[in-house]
Write a structure and sequence with these properties.
Length: 287
């Protein structure tokens, strides 16, 4: 690995945190502009229009298509941008932009400080086996089937990024907040006490649908066994994963959202055995 790559990976989480803060600032900017009668950017993370360009959450687009039984061209076209991003870079929306993930990460940090012994215990219990994707896909399909069967927009009330972004707008515009926000922060609080991230890992329909759009060339985590210096039960890359995944082992996707924390840890504790790449080479362990 070149020195340039090492410097980039060491600072990757810093870049990601900046982007997360920028994304939160963007969500705050939208209602501020609207209250000042500036409509260049309107909407939220369900659907946003930026200088006339519509961007729609693919999960919302699919749900609307199922409920209306109509192929709405404008809606499908609006979903193309996030779909293209997912095809290229994987579920980076979840780790780089999603406000729910951002709040969860900071709350997890706080809980680690409050319950350090529990955190260390969970660290030692890091699994070397990634969860089977069957549960992930069954939950996702079940949500859309429920929407279709009952004619009710189930996904709308399970899209935590959409709820948070819309509630931020309502609060700034003096419209108060809805009860949905209590559910969202209830999940964040609960996961903090459990020190687990089950929602992002298994349940979220927004990330779940984005996980579908993968190809052999989509950005992925590669593991070069020849450079790996960790042996036995010691796997610092796994203990650093916010979703409790095993970065070096098979079955990493569709759960992984390419945050890069495991790579940063590998840079500090090993010899750069982990890296991002578009596709994998013959020396990399299958994921």
């Amino acid at each position: 690995m070149t020195m340039v790559n090492r410097k980039f990976y060491n600072r990757l989480n810093f870049y990601r945190k900046l982007f997360q803060l920028f994304s939160l600032g963007f969500l705050i900017l939208i209602p501020v502009l609207i209250t000042n009668q500036i409509y260049a950017i309107i909407g939220n993370l369900y659907s946003v229009t930026i200088f006339g360009i519509d961007i729609v959450d693919p999960a919302m687009a699919l749900q609307t298509t199922l409920l209306t039984r109509e192929f709405i061209t404008v809606l499908i076209a609006g979903a193309l941008i996030p779909i293209i991003v997912a095809l290229l870079f994987g579920k980076v929306f979840c780790s780089w932009m999603c406000p729910f993930n951002t709040f969860s990460e900071y709350w997890q940090i706080i809980m680690r400080k409050i319950f350090p012994n529990r955190w260390r215990l969970i660290q030692r219990e890091t699994s070397k086996i990634n969860p089977k994707p069957l549960t992930y896909w069954v939950i996702l399909i079940a949500f859309f089937l429920l929407s279709l069967i009952f004619g009710f927009p189930v996904i709308t009330f399970l899209s935590f990024p959409g709820i948070l972004s819309s509630e931020i707008s309502h609060l700034i515009m003096g419209m108060g907040v809805g009860i949905e926000i209590l559910v969202v922060f209830g999940v964040i609080l609960a996961e903090g006490f459990l020190l687990k991230r089950y929602w992002c890992k298994f349940i979220c329909p927004v990330g779940g649908l984005l996980g579908i759009f993968r190809t052999p060339k989509t950005l992925r985590l590669n593991h070069n066994e020849g450079n790996c210096s960790c042996g036995g039960a010691l796997e610092p890359c796994g203990t650093s994963c916010p979703l409790g995944l095993a970065p070096k082992h098979e079955g990493l996707y569709p759960h992984c959202f390419n945050c890069g924390l495991c790579i940063k840890t590998c840079e500090k504790t090993g010899f750069g055995a982990l890296s991002f790449g578009f596709g994998k080479n013959s020396k990399d362990k299958k994921n």
